[in-house]
Amino acid sequence: MGKTTLRHLRDFSRAACSVLIAAVVAVTGSQPASAQNRNVPIVRDAEIEALVSEYARPILKAAGLANSGIQIVLVNDPSFNAFVAGRRIFVNTGALVASETPNEIIGVLAHEAGHIAGGHQQRLRDQIARAQTIAVVAGLLGMGAALGGAVSGNRGAGQAGMGVAMGSSEAARRSILGYQRTEEVTADRAAMRYLESTGQSAKGMLTTFSRFQSALALSGTRVDPYQISHPMPRDRIANLTTLAEKSPHYNKTDPDNLQQRHDMMRAKIAAFTGSQAAAARLNRRLSGGPAAAYGDAINTFLRGNPASALQKTEALLQSMPKNPYFHELKGEVLMRANRPAEAAKSFAAATKLDPNRSGILQILYGQALLATGKPENLKPATTALRQGLERDREFINGYQSLARAYGQAGQIGDAELATAEGHYYSGNYQDAMIFAARAQQRLQRGSPSWIRAQDIISSRQKPKS
Question: Which stretches make up the Peptidase M48 domain (predicted)?
Fold first, then answer.
């Protein structure tokens, strides 16, 4: 968690998000509104990122994408949706909370992996370009007919020409929608293969499509199947049910320990992103197990008092002393209670126990050391922050802390460079270049830091996704 975690979301204006809306492929029929004109609100959390990445790992391997640099990104959005852009799979927090089993999310990830493996984004862009060309040519012909009708005084010919121009645009749109529906079916089929090859059930996929179908029925909306980019949920269910039921893995369930981690993730997201009442309802459905206790501890931390939250967190640690994220929560509680030295010990334990070596936890440890204000903690704080950012360059708040640590040590050039890095990864490229230039004035020419500052100054493109 920390300053830029589930509680503190940041806008993610990166190259991966700046794609055409039509080229973003989603698991539902709705396109993410932020894909082009608005930024995507990203959630950063070590625990959730580790779990969802664990879900995705065997699927990506089955899809031939294990070494393709695919990144899972969490989006703060209550709707059940996921989409791909570039080499990234975006998953809404709403999908994570609504999914009752890991298998449901694994099915979603398998579908999105099918889009990436099939090269659907680039092919859709090509299809859009072809459709636009056809529409433009047909439109010009229609406008020519309209102009000819006007010159000749033939109103009928003029109206017909305008009809051709308008019809060409509609035909192009329908062509694209039809193409997208075909690709969705292809991704569904690919997902089935990935699940089968990894020994997992496709039942979660069917549950997801059934959820869409129920939502559509409850809305009372009549949908023209030829006016949407995805097949109707009932058609997807019909196409996949027989194939799914033939699999020997169809009735396979998720391991108990994975289900428990999934439930803890749901409780955590509900506590941080939902109302207190919504979080309480979910905790009741989780039947008073560890996930419910975790959600209750987080709710107390957010809306109660530190003493009570600390007591509940200590109880969690007694039941699972090697859970790094319980130590992380304890560190957060202690930071709120203005006990940074003790918080640093908890974050250090979380870092040591974390099998994924999350940069986020390392940064939180460095921030706690820095918050103690003790001179002897300045150097280890700087080291922890730098190491954390080397593991996770996009944890933006870490650069602010690193700049402050360098500033306190009198290393102003490095502080300016850390500030430049933060602006760079935030997408504020103009500010990044300004601070990089200021850093160069204080750094030794030709040093690694000076060269990095020059890279930022010379960059005319956004960071690679």
Answer: 44-242
